[in-house]
Design brief:
Blueprint: H1 12-16, H2 18-34, E1 45-53, E2 58-65, E3 71-77, E4 86-92, E5 98-104, E6 110-117, E7 123-129, E8 138-144, E9 150-156, E10 162-169, E11 175-181, E12 190-196, E13 202-208, E14 213-223, E15 227-236, E16 242-250, E17 255-261, E18 267-274, E19 280-286, E20 295-301, E21 307-313, E22 319-326, E23 332-338, E24 347-353, E25 359-361, E26 364-365, E27 371-378, E28 384-390, E29 401-407, E30 416-424, E31 442-446, E32 453-459, E33 467-472, E34 478-484, E35 486-487, E36 492-498, E37 505-513, E38 518-526
Parallel strand pairs: 1-30
Antiparallel strand pairs: 1-29, 2-3, 3-4, 4-5, 6-7, 7-8, 8-9, 10-11, 11-12, 12-13, 14-15, 15-16, 16-17, 18-19, 19-20, 20-21, 22-23, 23-24, 24-25, 24-26, 27-28, 28-29, 31-32, 32-36, 33-34, 33-37, 35-36, 37-38
Length: 527
Protein backbone atom coordinates (compact mmCIF):
# COMPACT_ATOMS: atom_id res chain seq x y z
CA UNK A 1 0.00 0.00 0.00
CA UNK A 2 1.25 3.43 -0.85
CA UNK A 3 1.77 5.50 2.32
CA UNK A 4 0.71 9.13 2.26
CA UNK A 5 3.64 11.51 2.16
CA UNK A 6 3.90 13.31 5.49
CA UNK A 7 3.33 17.02 5.16
CA UNK A 8 5.20 19.86 6.78
CA UNK A 9 3.50 20.87 10.00
CA UNK A 10 1.91 17.45 10.64
CA UNK A 11 1.76 16.55 14.30
CA UNK A 12 3.60 13.71 16.03
CA UNK A 13 0.27 12.36 17.27
CA UNK A 14 -0.90 11.95 13.67
CA UNK A 15 2.26 10.01 12.84
CA UNK A 16 1.70 7.62 15.76
CA UNK A 17 -1.83 6.95 14.56
CA UNK A 18 -1.00 6.58 10.86
CA UNK A 19 -1.22 2.79 10.96
CA UNK A 20 -4.69 2.95 12.54
CA UNK A 21 -5.68 5.54 9.94
CA UNK A 22 -4.64 3.35 7.02
CA UNK A 23 -6.37 0.25 8.40
CA UNK A 24 -9.60 2.20 8.88
CA UNK A 25 -9.25 3.60 5.34
CA UNK A 26 -8.98 0.05 3.91
CA UNK A 27 -12.27 -0.83 5.61
CA UNK A 28 -13.96 2.33 4.39
CA UNK A 29 -12.81 1.81 0.79
CA UNK A 30 -14.11 -1.78 0.82
CA UNK A 31 -17.46 -0.62 2.20
CA UNK A 32 -17.61 2.14 -0.42
CA UNK A 33 -17.04 -0.35 -3.24
CA UNK A 34 -19.86 -2.56 -1.92
CA UNK A 35 -22.21 0.44 -2.06
CA UNK A 36 -23.48 0.38 1.54
CA UNK A 37 -27.08 0.62 0.33
CA UNK A 38 -28.17 -1.81 3.04
CA UNK A 39 -27.10 0.70 5.72
CA UNK A 40 -29.53 3.28 4.38
CA UNK A 41 -32.30 1.09 3.02
CA UNK A 42 -34.82 2.33 5.59
CA UNK A 43 -34.41 6.00 4.69
CA UNK A 44 -35.95 7.42 1.53
CA UNK A 45 -35.34 10.84 0.02
CA UNK A 46 -36.16 12.52 -3.27
CA UNK A 47 -33.40 13.79 -5.53
CA UNK A 48 -34.82 16.77 -7.41
CA UNK A 49 -32.94 17.26 -10.67
CA UNK A 50 -33.12 20.58 -12.54
CA UNK A 51 -31.55 21.45 -15.87
CA UNK A 52 -31.32 24.87 -17.51
CA UNK A 53 -29.91 25.90 -20.86
CA UNK A 54 -30.18 26.21 -24.61
CA UNK A 55 -29.14 24.36 -27.73
CA UNK A 56 -25.36 24.41 -27.18
CA UNK A 57 -23.11 24.33 -24.09
CA UNK A 58 -24.15 25.68 -20.71
CA UNK A 59 -22.40 24.96 -17.40
CA UNK A 60 -22.65 26.13 -13.79
CA UNK A 61 -19.33 26.69 -12.00
CA UNK A 62 -20.68 27.99 -8.68
CA UNK A 63 -23.99 28.11 -6.82
CA UNK A 64 -24.73 30.09 -3.65
CA UNK A 65 -27.82 30.60 -1.48
CA UNK A 66 -29.40 34.05 -1.56
CA UNK A 67 -30.96 36.08 1.24
CA UNK A 68 -34.47 35.52 -0.13
CA UNK A 69 -34.18 31.75 0.27
CA UNK A 70 -33.34 31.08 -3.37
CA UNK A 71 -30.07 30.48 -5.20
CA UNK A 72 -27.80 32.30 -7.62
CA UNK A 73 -25.65 30.46 -10.17
CA UNK A 74 -22.79 31.59 -12.38
CA UNK A 75 -21.22 29.73 -15.25
CA UNK A 76 -20.59 29.94 -18.95
CA UNK A 77 -22.77 29.63 -22.05
CA UNK A 78 -22.40 29.63 -25.79
CA UNK A 79 -26.13 29.07 -26.30
CA UNK A 80 -26.84 32.72 -25.51
CA UNK A 81 -25.17 36.12 -25.47
CA UNK A 82 -23.37 38.23 -28.02
CA UNK A 83 -20.04 36.41 -28.39
CA UNK A 84 -18.50 32.97 -28.54
CA UNK A 85 -18.98 32.30 -24.81
CA UNK A 86 -20.41 34.58 -22.13
CA UNK A 87 -21.03 34.70 -18.39
CA UNK A 88 -24.30 32.85 -17.72
CA UNK A 89 -26.15 33.77 -14.51
CA UNK A 90 -29.33 32.02 -13.34
CA UNK A 91 -31.51 32.96 -10.36
CA UNK A 92 -33.96 30.37 -9.00
CA UNK A 93 -36.29 30.23 -6.01
CA UNK A 94 -36.08 27.93 -2.98
CA UNK A 95 -37.26 24.87 -4.93
CA UNK A 96 -35.28 25.51 -8.13
CA UNK A 97 -37.93 27.29 -10.20
CA UNK A 98 -36.43 29.69 -12.73
CA UNK A 99 -36.79 33.39 -11.89
CA UNK A 100 -34.37 35.06 -14.32
CA UNK A 101 -31.23 34.40 -16.33
CA UNK A 102 -28.77 36.81 -17.93
CA UNK A 103 -25.59 36.73 -19.98
CA UNK A 104 -22.72 39.21 -19.78
CA UNK A 105 -19.80 39.67 -22.14
CA UNK A 106 -18.50 40.95 -25.45
CA UNK A 107 -17.87 39.65 -28.93
CA UNK A 108 -15.14 37.17 -27.93
CA UNK A 109 -14.89 34.82 -24.93
CA UNK A 110 -15.99 35.21 -21.33
CA UNK A 111 -16.18 32.48 -18.69
CA UNK A 112 -17.80 32.98 -15.27
CA UNK A 113 -16.50 31.14 -12.20
CA UNK A 114 -17.64 32.80 -8.98
CA UNK A 115 -20.44 34.94 -7.52
CA UNK A 116 -21.08 36.83 -4.30
CA UNK A 117 -24.34 38.45 -3.27
CA UNK A 118 -23.75 42.10 -2.43
CA UNK A 119 -25.06 44.12 0.50
CA UNK A 120 -27.36 46.11 -1.82
CA UNK A 121 -29.09 42.79 -2.74
CA UNK A 122 -27.34 42.67 -6.11
CA UNK A 123 -24.61 40.34 -7.34
CA UNK A 124 -20.95 40.47 -8.35
CA UNK A 125 -19.68 37.87 -10.84
CA UNK A 126 -16.04 37.19 -11.66
CA UNK A 127 -14.23 35.23 -14.35
CA UNK A 128 -12.21 36.25 -17.38
CA UNK A 129 -12.63 37.97 -20.74
CA UNK A 130 -10.76 38.47 -23.98
CA UNK A 131 -13.35 40.92 -25.32
CA UNK A 132 -12.13 43.72 -23.04
CA UNK A 133 -9.03 44.72 -21.10
CA UNK A 134 -5.33 45.27 -21.56
CA UNK A 135 -4.38 42.21 -23.60
CA UNK A 136 -4.97 38.50 -23.96
CA UNK A 137 -7.28 37.28 -21.20
CA UNK A 138 -8.11 39.64 -18.32
CA UNK A 139 -9.93 39.27 -15.01
CA UNK A 140 -13.55 40.33 -15.58
CA UNK A 141 -15.84 41.63 -12.81
CA UNK A 142 -19.52 42.35 -13.49
CA UNK A 143 -21.84 44.05 -10.96
CA UNK A 144 -25.64 43.76 -11.27
CA UNK A 145 -28.76 44.68 -9.33
CA UNK A 146 -31.05 42.14 -7.64
CA UNK A 147 -32.68 41.22 -10.97
CA UNK A 148 -29.39 40.67 -12.77
CA UNK A 149 -29.56 43.96 -14.65
CA UNK A 150 -26.09 45.18 -15.59
CA UNK A 151 -24.70 48.08 -13.51
CA UNK A 152 -20.95 48.19 -14.25
CA UNK A 153 -17.95 46.08 -15.24
CA UNK A 154 -14.20 46.19 -14.60
CA UNK A 155 -11.18 44.38 -16.01
CA UNK A 156 -7.85 43.75 -14.28
CA UNK A 157 -4.55 42.57 -15.71
CA UNK A 158 -1.62 43.38 -17.93
CA UNK A 159 -0.45 42.55 -21.43
CA UNK A 160 -0.38 38.76 -20.85
CA UNK A 161 -3.01 36.28 -19.61
CA UNK A 162 -4.86 37.01 -16.34
CA UNK A 163 -7.80 35.07 -14.85
CA UNK A 164 -10.28 35.58 -12.01
CA UNK A 165 -11.51 32.40 -10.29
CA UNK A 166 -13.05 33.38 -6.94
CA UNK A 167 -14.65 36.48 -5.35
CA UNK A 168 -15.89 37.56 -1.91
CA UNK A 169 -17.45 40.81 -0.74
CA UNK A 170 -15.90 42.45 2.33
CA UNK A 171 -17.43 44.47 5.21
CA UNK A 172 -16.58 47.80 3.52
CA UNK A 173 -18.60 46.62 0.46
CA UNK A 174 -15.42 46.18 -1.57
CA UNK A 175 -14.28 42.91 -3.10
CA UNK A 176 -11.34 40.53 -2.96
CA UNK A 177 -10.60 38.33 -5.99
CA UNK A 178 -8.06 35.58 -6.50
CA UNK A 179 -6.91 33.87 -9.67
CA UNK A 180 -3.91 33.51 -11.94
CA UNK A 181 -1.61 36.04 -13.63
CA UNK A 182 1.08 35.75 -16.28
CA UNK A 183 1.42 39.53 -16.53
CA UNK A 184 2.99 40.06 -13.11
CA UNK A 185 5.29 38.33 -10.63
CA UNK A 186 8.37 36.14 -10.66
CA UNK A 187 7.07 32.77 -11.81
CA UNK A 188 5.63 31.28 -14.96
CA UNK A 189 2.14 31.90 -13.63
CA UNK A 190 1.46 33.44 -10.21
CA UNK A 191 -1.40 33.63 -7.72
CA UNK A 192 -3.20 36.89 -8.48
CA UNK A 193 -5.01 38.75 -5.67
CA UNK A 194 -7.00 41.94 -6.30
CA UNK A 195 -8.56 44.15 -3.61
CA UNK A 196 -11.14 46.71 -4.76
CA UNK A 197 -13.55 49.24 -3.32
CA UNK A 198 -17.34 48.89 -3.73
CA UNK A 199 -17.16 50.35 -7.25
CA UNK A 200 -14.54 47.88 -8.41
CA UNK A 201 -11.69 50.41 -8.36
CA UNK A 202 -8.37 48.78 -7.49
CA UNK A 203 -7.01 49.39 -3.98
CA UNK A 204 -4.08 46.98 -4.31
CA UNK A 205 -2.97 43.86 -6.19
CA UNK A 206 -0.50 41.10 -5.38
CA UNK A 207 1.23 38.49 -7.54
CA UNK A 208 2.40 35.63 -5.30
CA UNK A 209 4.78 32.98 -6.56
CA UNK A 210 8.39 31.97 -6.95
CA UNK A 211 10.74 31.91 -9.91
CA UNK A 212 10.69 28.51 -11.56
CA UNK A 213 7.17 27.69 -10.37
CA UNK A 214 3.64 27.77 -11.76
CA UNK A 215 1.29 28.98 -8.99
CA UNK A 216 -2.47 29.53 -9.19
CA UNK A 217 -5.14 30.68 -6.73
CA UNK A 218 -8.33 28.68 -7.30
CA UNK A 219 -10.50 29.72 -4.36
CA UNK A 220 -10.66 32.35 -1.60
CA UNK A 221 -12.60 32.64 1.65
CA UNK A 222 -12.72 35.44 4.21
CA UNK A 223 -11.81 34.59 7.79
CA UNK A 224 -13.08 36.99 10.48
CA UNK A 225 -13.44 39.86 7.96
CA UNK A 226 -9.73 40.75 7.76
CA UNK A 227 -7.85 37.57 6.77
CA UNK A 228 -8.12 35.76 3.45
CA UNK A 229 -7.52 32.04 3.06
CA UNK A 230 -6.50 31.20 -0.50
CA UNK A 231 -5.95 27.74 -1.95
CA UNK A 232 -4.58 26.66 -5.29
CA UNK A 233 -1.69 24.73 -6.76
CA UNK A 234 2.07 25.13 -7.02
CA UNK A 235 4.13 23.22 -9.58
CA UNK A 236 7.91 23.15 -9.86
CA UNK A 237 8.60 23.61 -13.56
CA UNK A 238 11.39 21.04 -13.77
CA UNK A 239 9.19 18.47 -12.01
CA UNK A 240 5.91 16.80 -12.85
CA UNK A 241 4.68 17.03 -9.24
CA UNK A 242 2.10 19.56 -8.04
CA UNK A 243 1.33 20.52 -4.43
CA UNK A 244 -1.66 22.21 -2.83
CA UNK A 245 -0.72 25.85 -2.19
CA UNK A 246 -2.24 27.62 0.84
CA UNK A 247 -1.86 31.36 1.48
CA UNK A 248 -3.07 33.34 4.49
CA UNK A 249 -3.19 37.05 3.65
CA UNK A 250 -4.27 40.13 5.60
CA UNK A 251 -6.49 42.96 4.36
CA UNK A 252 -3.47 45.15 3.55
CA UNK A 253 -2.13 42.59 1.09
CA UNK A 254 0.53 41.19 3.40
CA UNK A 255 1.18 37.44 3.30
CA UNK A 256 0.88 36.09 6.85
CA UNK A 257 1.73 32.53 5.84
CA UNK A 258 2.15 30.37 2.78
CA UNK A 259 2.62 26.62 2.82
CA UNK A 260 2.36 23.65 0.46
CA UNK A 261 0.76 20.30 1.18
CA UNK A 262 2.01 17.47 -0.96
CA UNK A 263 4.85 15.15 -1.71
CA UNK A 264 6.11 12.84 -4.41
CA UNK A 265 2.85 12.77 -6.36
CA UNK A 266 0.22 15.33 -7.37
CA UNK A 267 -2.06 17.18 -4.95
CA UNK A 268 -4.56 19.74 -6.30
CA UNK A 269 -6.50 22.24 -4.16
CA UNK A 270 -9.70 23.34 -5.91
CA UNK A 271 -11.80 24.96 -3.16
CA UNK A 272 -11.50 26.41 0.33
CA UNK A 273 -14.18 27.22 2.90
CA UNK A 274 -14.11 28.24 6.53
CA UNK A 275 -14.92 25.66 9.22
CA UNK A 276 -16.99 26.26 12.35
CA UNK A 277 -13.80 26.58 14.44
CA UNK A 278 -12.37 29.12 11.93
CA UNK A 279 -10.04 26.57 10.41
CA UNK A 280 -10.14 25.72 6.71
CA UNK A 281 -11.65 22.94 4.59
CA UNK A 282 -9.71 22.30 1.38
CA UNK A 283 -11.10 20.00 -1.27
CA UNK A 284 -9.37 18.72 -4.37
CA UNK A 285 -7.65 15.66 -5.82
CA UNK A 286 -4.53 13.54 -5.51
CA UNK A 287 -2.93 10.64 -7.36
CA UNK A 288 -0.93 9.55 -4.31
CA UNK A 289 -2.70 6.17 -4.14
CA UNK A 290 -2.99 5.52 -7.89
CA UNK A 291 -0.14 7.38 -9.65
CA UNK A 292 -1.48 9.02 -12.78
CA UNK A 293 -5.14 8.56 -11.74
CA UNK A 294 -6.76 11.12 -9.47
CA UNK A 295 -8.95 10.51 -6.42
CA UNK A 296 -10.98 13.05 -4.47
CA UNK A 297 -9.24 14.44 -1.39
CA UNK A 298 -9.98 16.63 1.66
CA UNK A 299 -7.52 18.53 3.86
CA UNK A 300 -8.63 19.98 7.22
CA UNK A 301 -6.46 22.68 8.80
CA UNK A 302 -6.54 24.90 11.86
CA UNK A 303 -7.06 28.66 11.63
CA UNK A 304 -3.47 29.28 10.49
CA UNK A 305 -3.27 26.51 7.91
CA UNK A 306 -1.54 23.84 9.99
CA UNK A 307 -2.80 20.47 8.80
CA UNK A 308 -5.04 18.52 11.18
CA UNK A 309 -5.85 15.60 8.89
CA UNK A 310 -5.99 14.55 5.25
CA UNK A 311 -8.36 12.03 3.70
CA UNK A 312 -8.38 10.66 0.17
CA UNK A 313 -11.28 8.73 -1.30
CA UNK A 314 -10.09 5.92 -3.53
CA UNK A 315 -12.33 4.68 -6.33
CA UNK A 316 -11.73 2.30 -9.24
CA UNK A 317 -11.58 5.11 -11.79
CA UNK A 318 -10.84 8.85 -11.70
CA UNK A 319 -12.23 11.22 -9.09
CA UNK A 320 -11.90 15.02 -9.26
CA UNK A 321 -12.84 16.85 -6.05
CA UNK A 322 -14.40 20.29 -6.56
CA UNK A 323 -16.09 21.64 -3.42
CA UNK A 324 -16.78 20.82 0.24
CA UNK A 325 -18.54 22.52 3.15
CA UNK A 326 -19.12 21.81 6.83
CA UNK A 327 -22.66 21.28 8.10
CA UNK A 328 -24.16 22.38 11.40
CA UNK A 329 -23.64 18.93 12.96
CA UNK A 330 -19.86 19.09 12.32
CA UNK A 331 -19.92 16.68 9.38
CA UNK A 332 -19.00 17.53 5.78
CA UNK A 333 -20.62 17.45 2.34
CA UNK A 334 -18.50 17.26 -0.81
CA UNK A 335 -19.06 17.18 -4.55
CA UNK A 336 -16.89 16.19 -7.48
CA UNK A 337 -16.76 14.29 -10.73
CA UNK A 338 -16.11 10.55 -10.91
CA UNK A 339 -16.19 7.92 -13.65
CA UNK A 340 -16.36 4.88 -11.32
CA UNK A 341 -20.14 4.74 -10.94
CA UNK A 342 -23.32 5.09 -12.98
CA UNK A 343 -24.36 4.38 -16.55
CA UNK A 344 -22.24 6.66 -18.69
CA UNK A 345 -18.81 8.20 -18.39
CA UNK A 346 -18.27 10.78 -15.64
CA UNK A 347 -20.95 11.40 -13.01
CA UNK A 348 -21.70 14.08 -10.44
CA UNK A 349 -20.47 12.46 -7.21
CA UNK A 350 -21.54 13.57 -3.72
CA UNK A 351 -20.21 12.42 -0.36
CA UNK A 352 -21.34 12.77 3.24
CA UNK A 353 -18.31 12.59 5.56
CA UNK A 354 -18.04 12.42 9.33
CA UNK A 355 -16.22 15.01 11.47
CA UNK A 356 -12.85 13.40 10.68
CA UNK A 357 -13.56 13.16 6.97
CA UNK A 358 -14.39 9.45 6.91
CA UNK A 359 -16.93 8.26 4.36
CA UNK A 360 -20.55 7.83 5.48
CA UNK A 361 -22.49 7.78 2.20
CA UNK A 362 -22.15 9.03 -1.33
CA UNK A 363 -24.33 8.46 -4.39
CA UNK A 364 -23.56 9.53 -7.93
CA UNK A 365 -26.15 11.15 -10.19
CA UNK A 366 -26.36 11.22 -13.97
CA UNK A 367 -27.58 9.58 -17.12
CA UNK A 368 -26.00 7.92 -20.13
CA UNK A 369 -23.68 10.84 -20.93
CA UNK A 370 -21.30 12.83 -18.75
CA UNK A 371 -22.03 14.94 -15.68
CA UNK A 372 -19.73 17.16 -13.65
CA UNK A 373 -20.12 18.35 -10.07
CA UNK A 374 -18.62 21.79 -9.37
CA UNK A 375 -20.24 23.48 -6.39
CA UNK A 376 -22.39 23.08 -3.25
CA UNK A 377 -24.96 25.37 -1.62
CA UNK A 378 -26.39 24.71 1.85
CA UNK A 379 -29.73 26.39 2.51
CA UNK A 380 -31.11 27.56 5.86
CA UNK A 381 -34.03 25.11 5.50
CA UNK A 382 -31.63 22.13 5.39
CA UNK A 383 -31.73 21.61 1.62
CA UNK A 384 -28.41 20.91 -0.07
CA UNK A 385 -27.86 21.69 -3.76
CA UNK A 386 -25.11 20.40 -6.04
CA UNK A 387 -24.39 22.22 -9.29
CA UNK A 388 -22.48 21.44 -12.48
CA UNK A 389 -23.36 20.31 -15.99
CA UNK A 390 -24.81 17.35 -17.89
CA UNK A 391 -24.66 16.03 -21.44
CA UNK A 392 -27.01 13.05 -20.92
CA UNK A 393 -29.89 12.45 -23.32
CA UNK A 394 -33.23 13.13 -21.67
CA UNK A 395 -31.68 15.70 -19.35
CA UNK A 396 -30.52 18.33 -21.83
CA UNK A 397 -32.10 20.63 -24.39
CA UNK A 398 -28.70 21.08 -26.08
CA UNK A 399 -25.17 19.72 -25.95
CA UNK A 400 -24.54 20.47 -22.26
CA UNK A 401 -26.95 22.02 -19.76
CA UNK A 402 -26.59 23.44 -16.28
CA UNK A 403 -27.34 20.53 -13.92
CA UNK A 404 -28.62 20.86 -10.35
CA UNK A 405 -29.41 18.12 -7.83
CA UNK A 406 -31.39 19.16 -4.74
CA UNK A 407 -31.78 17.00 -1.65
CA UNK A 408 -34.15 17.98 1.15
CA UNK A 409 -31.69 16.86 3.81
CA UNK A 410 -27.95 17.40 4.18
CA UNK A 411 -27.45 13.70 5.05
CA UNK A 412 -26.77 12.20 1.63
CA UNK A 413 -28.53 8.85 1.40
CA UNK A 414 -28.29 5.85 -0.89
CA UNK A 415 -31.98 5.11 -1.22
CA UNK A 416 -33.83 7.80 -3.18
CA UNK A 417 -36.30 8.51 -5.96
CA UNK A 418 -35.72 10.95 -8.83
CA UNK A 419 -37.83 13.91 -9.89
CA UNK A 420 -36.68 15.73 -13.06
CA UNK A 421 -37.53 19.32 -14.06
CA UNK A 422 -36.19 20.84 -17.28
CA UNK A 423 -36.10 24.53 -18.10
CA UNK A 424 -35.40 25.47 -21.71
CA UNK A 425 -34.13 29.01 -21.51
CA UNK A 426 -35.81 31.51 -23.81
CA UNK A 427 -32.93 33.95 -24.07
CA UNK A 428 -32.30 34.46 -27.81
CA UNK A 429 -29.55 32.17 -29.09
CA UNK A 430 -26.33 33.58 -30.46
CA UNK A 431 -26.54 33.88 -34.24
CA UNK A 432 -23.90 32.58 -36.63
CA UNK A 433 -22.48 29.87 -34.35
CA UNK A 434 -23.04 26.43 -35.92
CA UNK A 435 -24.10 23.60 -33.62
CA UNK A 436 -21.10 21.54 -32.43
CA UNK A 437 -18.58 24.04 -33.77
CA UNK A 438 -15.21 23.05 -32.22
CA UNK A 439 -13.97 25.50 -29.64
CA UNK A 440 -10.58 26.95 -30.60
CA UNK A 441 -8.35 26.92 -27.54
CA UNK A 442 -5.43 29.07 -26.41
CA UNK A 443 -2.09 27.44 -25.57
CA UNK A 444 1.02 28.42 -23.61
CA UNK A 445 4.34 26.55 -23.37
CA UNK A 446 6.67 27.55 -20.53
CA UNK A 447 9.56 27.68 -20.43
CA UNK A 448 10.14 27.70 -24.18
CA UNK A 449 12.88 26.92 -25.34
CA UNK A 450 12.95 23.65 -23.40
CA UNK A 451 16.18 22.89 -21.55
CA UNK A 452 14.94 20.04 -19.33
CA UNK A 453 11.15 20.03 -18.77
CA UNK A 454 8.37 22.37 -19.91
CA UNK A 455 4.62 22.64 -19.41
CA UNK A 456 1.97 22.80 -22.14
CA UNK A 457 -1.07 24.71 -20.81
CA UNK A 458 -4.37 24.70 -22.69
CA UNK A 459 -7.10 27.22 -21.85
CA UNK A 460 -10.15 25.43 -23.20
CA UNK A 461 -13.71 26.26 -24.05
CA UNK A 462 -16.73 24.76 -22.30
CA UNK A 463 -18.27 21.47 -23.36
CA UNK A 464 -14.93 19.70 -23.76
CA UNK A 465 -13.82 16.84 -21.53
CA UNK A 466 -10.53 15.58 -22.96
CA UNK A 467 -7.51 16.89 -24.84
CA UNK A 468 -4.32 15.31 -26.15
CA UNK A 469 -1.42 16.50 -28.28
CA UNK A 470 0.78 15.24 -31.09
CA UNK A 471 4.39 16.40 -31.52
CA UNK A 472 6.02 16.64 -34.97
CA UNK A 473 9.58 17.35 -36.10
CA UNK A 474 10.48 19.69 -38.96
CA UNK A 475 10.08 16.91 -41.53
CA UNK A 476 6.48 16.30 -40.44
CA UNK A 477 7.24 13.01 -38.69
CA UNK A 478 5.04 12.39 -35.64
CA UNK A 479 7.37 11.96 -32.64
CA UNK A 480 4.71 11.76 -29.90
CA UNK A 481 1.11 10.78 -30.57
CA UNK A 482 -2.08 11.23 -28.52
CA UNK A 483 -0.28 12.35 -25.38
CA UNK A 484 -2.99 13.18 -22.80
CA UNK A 485 -3.42 16.52 -21.05
CA UNK A 486 -4.65 16.56 -17.46
CA UNK A 487 -7.48 18.77 -16.21
CA UNK A 488 -6.41 21.22 -13.48
CA UNK A 489 -9.77 23.04 -13.10
CA UNK A 490 -11.25 26.22 -14.60
CA UNK A 491 -11.06 24.87 -18.13
CA UNK A 492 -7.29 24.45 -18.02
CA UNK A 493 -5.41 21.34 -19.06
CA UNK A 494 -1.68 20.67 -18.70
CA UNK A 495 0.96 18.21 -19.86
CA UNK A 496 4.69 18.13 -19.24
CA UNK A 497 7.18 17.63 -22.05
CA UNK A 498 10.76 16.74 -21.25
CA UNK A 499 13.83 17.10 -23.41
CA UNK A 500 14.68 13.44 -22.85
CA UNK A 501 15.93 11.90 -26.07
CA UNK A 502 14.55 14.69 -28.29
CA UNK A 503 17.24 16.18 -30.50
CA UNK A 504 17.95 19.90 -30.42
CA UNK A 505 15.71 21.72 -32.87
CA UNK A 506 12.23 23.06 -33.62
CA UNK A 507 9.10 20.95 -33.15
CA UNK A 508 5.42 21.61 -33.75
CA UNK A 509 2.50 20.44 -31.62
CA UNK A 510 -1.17 19.96 -32.44
CA UNK A 511 -3.84 20.03 -29.70
CA UNK A 512 -6.67 17.54 -30.36
CA UNK A 513 -10.07 17.52 -28.64
CA UNK A 514 -12.07 14.46 -27.56
CA UNK A 515 -13.76 14.02 -30.94
CA UNK A 516 -10.43 14.04 -32.79
CA UNK A 517 -10.47 17.59 -34.16
CA UNK A 518 -7.39 19.81 -34.20
CA UNK A 519 -8.14 22.93 -32.14
CA UNK A 520 -4.72 24.62 -31.77
CA UNK A 521 -1.13 24.40 -32.98
CA UNK A 522 2.17 25.82 -31.79
CA UNK A 523 5.95 25.61 -31.78
CA UNK A 524 8.37 24.18 -29.22
CA UNK A 525 12.14 24.72 -29.33
CA UNK A 526 14.39 22.06 -27.78
CA UNK A 527 17.81 23.33 -26.70
Amino acid sequence: MHLLVLFSGISAIFVLHLHWYLMKKIFIIIVAFLGCSNLYGQYKDTAFIYTYGGIQNDVCNQIKPTNDGGYIMIGTSNSFGCGNTDFYAIKVDSVGRHEWSKTYGGLENEEGFSVTQTFDKGYAFVGFTDSYGAGGYDVYLVKTDSQGNFQWQRTYGGSDWDFGYSIQQLPDSGFVICGLTYSYGLGNGNVYVIRTNKNGDTLWTRAIGDSGYYSVGNSICVQEDSLYGIVGNKTLLNSEDTSVYFILMNDKGGVEKHITYGGVHNYFGNSISEAIDHGFIIYGSTDSIKPGKLDEMMIRTDSTGNIMWLQDYASPGIGIGRDAVQTSDNTYISVGTNNSYGLGGYKMHMQHLDKYGYWIAGPSFGGTGNEEGNSIALAKNGNVLFAGATSSLGYTTGLNDVYIVRLKNDSIVQNYTLSLYQYKDTTPCTLGVPLQEPMIVAVKVFPNPVTSLSTILVQAGIGQEYYSYNLYDMSGKCILQKMPLQSVAHGQYIAHIGKGSLATGVYFFVIINQIGLSVATGKIIIE
